[in-house]
# Entry
Amino acid sequence: MRAIDLRSDTVTRPTPAMRSAMAQAELGDDVFGEDPTVNTLEERMAALFGMEAALFCPSGTMTNQIAVNVHTRPGDEVLCEEGAHVYRYEGGGMMANSGCSVKFLPAERGRFTAEAVEAAVNDRAHAYLANSRLVVVENTVNRGGGTVWNIAEVRRIRTACDRLGLGLHLDGARLFNAMIADGSTPADWGRTCHSISICLSKGLGAPVGSVLLGTHAFIHQARRVRKRLGGGMRQAGMLAAAGLHAMDHHVGRLAEDHLRAQRIGKIISEQPWCARVLPVETNIIIYDLRPETDAKEHVAALASEGVLCFAIGPRQVRMVTHLDIDDDAVDRTITILRKMKP
Ligand SMILES: Cc1ncc(COP(=O)(O)O)c(C=O)c1O
# Structure
């Protein structure tokens, strides 16, 4: 029997319908701006978010890295939270690609406040301080356990950014999960942020692809940086078609992933080896084990039963629900979780 893969929502494989959409896509050379399917995806995403322009890229890491590069100059400082993907899981890219330093903002499960931004910004009058230039918000917050930001707080952060001359980039790798969870709309987020990165290859189930959104001028420069990083793709319409298919068929169903994550989280919270489960807000379940249980051993024991997940700390484990996890997989996972020994 195939393993139940709860390591990440990136592990999904394209459905037969998505593969068929990919095979039938109209194609051209996107580096020449001639791929009609890529152009359709970019226009559709920009219109949906009420933003001027969009750029299709190979990965969420690339959209984030391009955004940082366009917003900043070498020597600038980026403000984000310690667990932010853009800082922690992108190979030191902000420092290597853009020459930026980073200041961590105090946060609660990945969410910080406008006051924290205001308190952290360096005074521009002092030439010896780095130029604070960009704030990065992540929604949902991966490392926080799929936490959803209150958009009212992000609006307050934007107001602070405007007053302080900072850019606001949203790492929306899982923004559709957040919007399904709280009812906020793409237009709400488009109005609130200077740039947004959306991943099509996480909960939305496309095999590849992320979209960067911003003004015409921002995306014009982003296109140049994408090329410089080697991210200019040719007949990329096959991949964009998967993204378009995902937008048509896989957005509403994210609510099912959230319900399934809640079911799994509830059962875990009842087990003797579990110290606590972080509140399950979307499709990510993070739990702490009791001191006598080692996360790596626990994950290995689950794997031997056919449930795959990640240890993300000595006593912390993460599971993620997605398109390839149905109710039957959840039932089987629950049966196996109940058999686990401390
Ligand atoms: C919050 C967040 N941002 C960005 C990324 C990067 O996406 P990619 O794996 O497509 O580079 C991820 C990947 O898991 C993520 O969780």
Q: What stands out?
A: The CA atoms of residues 270 and 338 lie 9 Å apart. The chain has 14 helices and 13 strands.
